[in-house]
TrEMBL record:
Disordered as annotated region, ranges: 212-248
Source organism (scientific name): Candidatus Chloroploca mongolica
Domain spans labelled NERD: 11-130
Protein name: NERD domain-containing protein
Xref: PROSITE patterns: NERD (PS50965)
Organism superkingdom: Bacteria
Length: 460
């Protein structure tokens, strides 16, 4: 299965449990293994949420907010309701930004200290868990009018854009096998959350197992002993009805009613509804247009540093189903202190520290037996920016692991050069047809203009 949920203790609040289930449902459809660690302690800190995948670890502070959020790096955060009343968030505790920072130090110190317990000697020498990602997540979404000022250390995400962020972003220096990933929750003394993991597998446990959620079957429903007739089909074993009533009807309606009469069945139904709501929220999010190349440069502030929540839901815009035209934006700013490019978080420091370079993947075409990428680059800095359209800088792969090399002779131009204050377009072409079985494309920038960044397009 693609997702496993591990916990130190079961979250007390129903909202936290619902969010974890909705997130697990969203990630369950993706490739590879994702581990969700919730409500566990390390270094004297109880951490809300950690997501582990093979090339990234995310340390998250989750906040349920029903209004506009006002806050910054220092000082208290507030939630403002529709009536204008403000309530302090995390009253008597650190603000969410400082909580994430404290979680980051506690967890990364632990992982660095114990890395030789689950990594080989050579691999342990080359990995640094301080590259873990940090983010404050506002559920269900960041409301318009929120004023949150953060720095490069912590990103800000709405719950509606979190799945796309988790799928596309990676941590430099972190490459883990599934065995190495699974060693981490065990070292942290987490245990599998059997109820959620069982629902994710699509299994309805036997009546006896439902009486004790901690004893749910590990692999599936209990099967009856085979009959003497070798051709007989094994049947699910039902717990005897204490009242002696007849066995329920095996019709679909009766099975649904029986499932909804159980705790696990009701949880599964509720989580399915939440997953649909989350998907609708992603679909209905407004798309941020990219300025046209012949327009004067316009400062684009509303970027997230990784593709937006629309990244996984780009819809074909032609009758052939081979042309996708919803822009995905990545904006970054150079930080002279760390000598590195940092993402500009939406609703965070974008107003006071706008992105210096913005790249938009405007269009993806898989028509005519080739893959064509249309790029738009905006340069808000005071220096020339270059964006090579070649295989050394742009890698394309699909959900099956197939790679598509660019034909550099077909790129127009070979290198996009953007003068200060200008923006330019370019086209990169891979002259190979998309696999008919592929469900998504991943486009990754390797180096220029600002280091690594990823874009994901659903192609079915």
């Amino acid at each position: 299965m693609a997702v496993q949920v591990w916990i130190g203790e079961k979250p007390e609040h129903p909202n936290e449990r619902r969010v974890i289930m909705a997130l697990a449902n969203a990630l369950h459809q993706m490739e590879g293994l994702y581990l969700i660690l919730s409500n566990f302690s390390v270094g004297g800190r109880t951490i809300d949420l950690v997501i582990i995948k093979h090339d990234a670890i995310f340390i998250l502070e989750l906040k349920q907010c029903d209004g506009r959020v006002i806050g910054s790096v220092n000082g208290p955060w507030f939630v403002e309701g529709r009536n204008g009343e403000r309530k302090r968030l995390n009253a008597g505790r650190k603000n969410p930004y400082n909580q994430v920072i404290s979680y980051f130090h506690a967890l990364t110190n632990f992982l660095n200290e114990h890395r030789r317990e689950f990594l080989s000697g050579q691999k342990a020498n080359g990995i640094d868990f301080r590259t873990c990602k940090r983010a404050v997540v506002i559920a269900p979404a960041i409301q318009d009018g929120s004023e949150i000022e953060l720095d490069w250390k912590v990103e800000l995400k709405g719950m509606d854009e979190l799945p796309a962020y988790l799928i596309t972003e990676r941590s430099s220096e972190i490459e883990l096998t599934e065995e190495e990933m699974l060693a981490i929750p065990s070292l942290l003394h987490c245990t599998p959350w059997h109820e959620i993991n069982t629902v994710l597998r699509g299994l309805v446990p036997s009546t006896e197992a439902m009486l004790d959620p901690d004893e749910l079957p590990a692999e599936g429903p209990v099967l009856a002993e085979p009959s003497a007739d070798a051709s007989a089909t094994p049947a699910l074993v039902d717990a005897p009805d204490p009242a002696g009533s007849p066995v329920p009807s095996t019709s679909l309606v009766a099975q649904v009613r029986q499932a909804l009469g159980t705790t696990t069945g009701r949880i599964a139904a509720a989580m399915a509804v939440l997953a649909v709501i989350l998907a609708l929220a992603l679909v209905l999010r407004p798309v941020r247009p990219v300025p046209l190349a012949d327009d004067p440069p316009v400062l684009i502030v509303a970027v997230t540093g990784v593709p937006t929540g629309d990244a996984l839901l780009m819809q074909a815009t032609d009758l052939e189903g081979c042309l996708w035209s919803h822009a995905q934006l990545v904006g970054k700013r150079y930080d002279p202190t760390t000598r590195s490019w940092v993402s500009v978080a939406e609703g965070g420091s974008a107003a006071s520290n706008p992105p210096e370079v913005i790249i938009a993947l405007e269009q993806v075409s898989t028509c005519d037996g080739q893959i064509t990428l249309t790029w738009n680059v905006q340069n808000n800095s005071d220096r020339l920016i270059e964006f090579p359209l070649d295989s050394d800088n742009i890698q394309i792969s699909d959900s099956l692991g197939n790679e598509y090399l660019l034909d550099e002779t077909a790129s127009r131009p070979r290198i996009i050069q953007i003068a200060p204050g200008n923006q330019e377009r370019g086209i990169a072409v891979a002259k190979r047809p998309l696999s008919s079985s592929a469900t998504s494309l991943r486009i990754r920038l390797q180096d220029k203009p600002f280091g690594e960044a990823s874009f994901v397009v659903a192609v079915q």
